[in-house]
Amino acid sequence: MAVPARRTSKAKKNKRRTHYKLAAPNVAFDQSTGDYSRSHRVSLKGYYKGRKIAKAAAEQ
């Protein structure tokens, strides 16, 4: 049976099985406002699914 010569540090041990990846945000073109926005989020102009539901950030 193989025995390690030295103890593995925590830094090396934690880097072995990493499957963390950065995912790009889903961006869609909004026809009502004419700009790009993230999916399932209220746009900066206050639109969601083509309908005005909130005051825009600039209006407040």
Structural class: mainly beta
The residue fraction in helices comes out at under 10%
Net shape: rod-shaped
Order of H and E elements: HEEEE
User: Residue ranges: pLDDT <50 for 5 or more in a row?
Assistant: none
Give me the number of helical elements. Answer: 1
How much strand?
15-25%
Spatial arrangement of strands, main beta sheet: 1-2
Largest sheet report: 2 strands, antiparallel
Got a strand count?
4
Distance between the termini: 70 Å
Query: Residue-averaged pLDDT, rounded?
Result: 82
Quaternary structure: single chain
Radius of gyration: 24 Å
GO molecular function: structural constituent of ribosome
Keywords: Ribonucleoprotein, Ribosomal protein
Protein name: Large ribosomal subunit protein bL32
Family: Belongs to the bacterial ribosomal protein bL32 family.
